[in-house]
Amino acid sequence: MFRTLVVDLLLTLAYGGVGLALMALGYLLVDVVTPGKLHQLIWVERNRNATILLASNLVAVGIIVVAAIAAGENSFVTGLVGTTAYGLLGLAVMAVSFVLLDAVTPGRLGDILVDREPHPAVWVSAVVHLATGAIVAAAIS
To answer: How many domains is the chain built from?
Structure first.
């Protein structure tokens, strides 16, 4: 029983590491598509638009990772590789959705999404992130 607990804890730690790495990559992607630095915008300037955008991205990545873990094979290596692959695919799909939304937005979407004044476009972008994460998660199972 103790051995099973230790193995399960190590597996959880490994999946947690993959999830954190994917969320860090999601953070970097949002930082790239928005002007300025996210840490400055969110933690210093308290920019609500940037916060909503980043939070929706992180939740979407989390949804994908949870679905990939739940659908994972009984093999630890296969499950971990699958979780990583689905997470990366989800980030790629979210990036494409951002580019497509930017194409139909007047002006530059990144500029709008970090404006100091609340802007309704951030909610549209956030929902696109969440919906994309949910779609990828549903496709996994």
So the answer is: 1
